[in-house]
Amino acid sequence: KVLPGGELVLNLYSKLMLRLPGIFRFLSGSSVETNITSHIALTQDTPGDLKLVIKDCSNLLRGFSVNLRKG
């Protein structure tokens, strides 16, 4: 999303499903999910020098969940 004033909201979601053979088979079917939302902005100190600035780091530390297979 683009907010007024040139601020951007970046939302990243990913899910990793584990499929492991051998002695780690008990972890198969487990998953790790992330849902990260952060406010970012593009700044320009000099012409042609764009910088990506993360304005809110608190959301980067939350949003992880681990789901273990039953049993």
Blueprint of the fold:
Layout: E1 2-3, E2 7-17, E3 31-44, E4 50-54, H1 58-61, E5 64-67
Antiparallel strand pairs: 1-2, 2-3, 3-4, 3-5
Overview of this protein structure:
- It is a single chain.
- The chain is mostly beta strands.
- The chain has one domain (7-66).
- Helices cover 6% and strands 51% of the residues.
- The protein has 1 helix and 5 strands.
- Strands 1, 2, 3, 4 and 5 form a 5-stranded antiparallel beta sheet that branches.
- A hairpin with a 5-residue loop joins strand 3 and strand 4.
- The chain starts with a strand and ends with a strand.
- The model has no long low-confidence stretch (mean pLDDT 76).
- It comes from Haliaeetus albicilla.
- This is BPIB4 protein.
- InterPro entries: BPI_fold-BPI/LBP (IPR051660).
Helicity range = under 10%
What is the total domain count? 1
Query: What is the distance, rounded to the nearest whole angstrom, between the alpha carbons of the first and last residues?
Result: 41 Å
Q: Tell the overall outline.
A: elongated
**Class of secondary structure makeup:** mainly beta
Q: Please report the number of helical segments.
A: 1
Identify low-pLDDT runs. none
Task: Kindly report the average pLDDT value.
Answer: 76
How many β-strand runs? Answer: 5
Estimate what percentage of residues fall within beta strands: over 45%
Biggest sheet descriptor:
5 strands, antiparallel
The rounded Rg comes to 18 Å
Protein name: BPIB4 protein
